[in-house]
Amino acid sequence: MRLPLILQIISSLCLITTMAALPISWSKHGCPEKCGNVTIPYPFGIGPECSANSSFVVICSNDTIPPKPILKSIDMEALSISVHGTARVKQPVSPMNCSKEQKTQSVGISLVGSPFTISNHYNSLVMLGCQNIVWLRANKTTTVGGCMAICEDTSTDTTCNGVNCCQTTLPPRLQEIQYTYRSFQSTNDSFCGYAFPTDKKWLREDYKRFKGLQSNLLNPFDQEFGYAPLVLEWELDDPLYFSNHASCRYPSRYFSSYSDSCSNPNLYSSYFFNENDYESPTKYCSCRHGFEGNPYIPGGCIDIDECSNATLNYCEGGTCINTFGSFTCQYSDNNIRSRVKIPLISIGSGLGALILLFGSWKSMKAITKRIKANRKRKFFKRNGGLLLEQHLSSSNNGLYKTKLFSSKELAQATDRYNENRILGCGGQGTVYKGMLIDGRIVAVKKSKRVDEGDLEVFINEVVILSQINHRNVVKLLGCCLETEVPLLVYEFIPNGTLFQHIHDPNEEFPLSWEMRLRIAREVAGALSYLHSAASTPIYHRDVKSTNILLDDKYRAKVSDFGTSRSVAIDQTHLTTRVLGTFGYLDPEYFQSSQFTEKSDVYSFGVVMVELLTGEKAISSVRAEVGRSLATHFLHSMEENHLFDILDARVLKEGKKEEIIAIAELARRCLHLNGKRRPTMKEVAVELEGIQGLKEGSILMQNHDENKEDHLIEIAESYDFSLISGSIHLDTTTACSPDVHQPLLDEP
Length: 747
What we know:
- Keywords: ATP-binding, Disulfide bond, Glycoprotein, Kinase, Membrane, Nucleotide-binding, Serine/threonine-protein kinase, Signal, Transferase, Transmembrane, Transmembrane helix.
- It is found in: Membrane.
- By secondary structure, this protein is of the alpha+beta class.
- Strand 28 and strand 29 (about 485-490) form a beta hairpin.
């Protein structure tokens, strides 16, 4: 009975002894393994005879000490080469010569025609410097990413995420890189920093040295930055030399499986999907489980002796015997009896534990219920519930309609926050569609966690929003504070966002010119109410077309007050860290970090331009004057090309007098000097005046000379010879901002 086992053990020991005598060979037989301090594994080799093909030839340069390896096909110095499909190379870095005009520059890398690609998993595009913006382009035309950095001398940030330094991801399988950049402060072709792709690990580990260079970049200098490491991915499809104990795979963090052999990669291919590139991942080979070495060399995968390392085997209480590619465990009779006792003891202990659990089931149920109640109470206090109760207990605060929902009620309403109920996700949280017990359809916003220092501000916002009673502001119905993160309950608005209707129009119900004018009036009225008619002035701070909803009658509803702030009546601005959406962000606020009511006016001006042109706030198509719609619009106005950029439906349905009046109002809202922008109240009144101009029923009282002169200036600023047909501006119908208009009627 035991003879076969003994023979197997003896055979395995002999085989292991033979294998142990064989050292791991990384290069082709008879070829040097190293150039200087760098190991050169096959399919790479020093000289054409030692490499798989001409793409993997390495030249060992003896001009330096130690010698340095050069990848001949791409003429780059290799810092390290891995058989797992990567190579770390040394790339030159050139400075950027910036100005306020856009410039395009190519990174000095060309991998076309080689098996090498720039790894998007290990690298990122880094822009070192400040007050600069960089766009990454693929195929020299398509913008695929970008970032912007601001200046801060005293910053302690070490993440390179926008302060003195920024970075962006790379698309997969790139063999060339081109980027466009522009400076906010340079006035001529002067040094302003560097932009280059580099190894994310190097950026993270060498950040102290990198940080020192950043501080110097705040005051430009003439020294060259030199070089930075870059990780390339390579691929070898020729299976002639693969080891019999290797497997081909694709890199990924999440999925893994092995093929039987690299000798035929088409059989049992294992797919390792890169999360950034599902269509063309880079394929590489490695030794199968139980082996180590170079999978690209015949016999290059050597058996691992699992018995020499206790962490590689599980023969606890027995004898480990190494086999080819694996190991076995041998146990004596005493070991077997001991192993049988262990399950019996475990079963007995389990039965005893079940009896104890069954006996204490009722008490545990009560304890669990109490724990849940305490947990809810803890969340309620942490989320500011006591502070909100104080406001609710007041008799004159107008909060009698605000409801405190239970966590159970909202969980049932949203089907336990089912993913199918998600209406949208944003920087402030996730919004779910729900139905309350009484049948009302609501939107439940699951906010991000509120810090203790922001509790008073958060509760103050809930109180303020509960008091807002305006027909064009989404109504806050209540909140729930007994969950880990606060939940806000709003009325449900069924017809989506203004952004969707502008940029993905419904052919059955498109946005007419009349609807666009009405939506602009309604949004302006709502913002005017928040700024000047609410009990406490409120700055929205994120006005954009995606935060303007349309109800069942396509009336505008301003939503998403997650970043809004209330201010004292005598307060002129808020000093905060810069928040907002690129394209709608007030440049003055971006520079000073001081948000005023005129910052909301600027964002509303961008929305007005969206309604006029049908274009997005940010687009790579507008390369000549910048991606910003505001910049494009102002440039077109200055060049008297307004009617060249308007939406086709606006040109078809709108009167030229109305279009020019709206465009001029938008231009004033987008003025770079916030003091020269109108207030939202003035904007709302002017929009009502334009509506009155259309209906022929304009209020004539309080008509002052300033308004008349202003409209005359509008008319004179246009070159009407460029516009077909005649346009008549009746300056006598202008409505003064001081005239009382019924803009803020509450529902």
